[in-house]
Here is the input.
Amino acid sequence: QVQLVESGGGLVQAGGSLRLSCVASGRAFSTYAMGWFRQAPGKDREFVAATTWSGGSTYYADSVKGRFTISRDNTKNTVYLEMNSLKLEDTAVYYCAAVVSYYRDYIARTLGEYDDWGQGTQVTVSS
Here is the structure.
C-alpha cells in the first residue's frame, strides 16, 4: 500500500520544540489522508492530529490543541508535526498513519480508520 518512515524524535527539555517528519512512498498515484498518533508506556495508542490529503483541513486532540501543528508538503510526500511548548506528558512513541482518500475533504480522526502505519519515533521530554 504505502510505506511510512518517521523521523525527528529525540530528547528535549520541557518547554522546548521538535518537528517530526513522515515520508511516504509506494503508491505513486494515490492520495492519502494523514494522521499522527502517540503511545506512552502502558497506555493505549491515542489520536494526536489529522489532516486531509490537501492539507486544507486539520483536527487536533484537546491535549495538544494550540501547541502542535500538522502540515504536509505533497510535492515531497511528507507530513509534519510541529510540537511546541512540550510537556512531560507528551513523552511517547509517535506514529504517522495513512488512509486512501477518495474525496478532498476526508479527514480520519480515529485509529481504526487508518490502514498503514510507520515504525514510530521516540519523543522524550525531560524536566
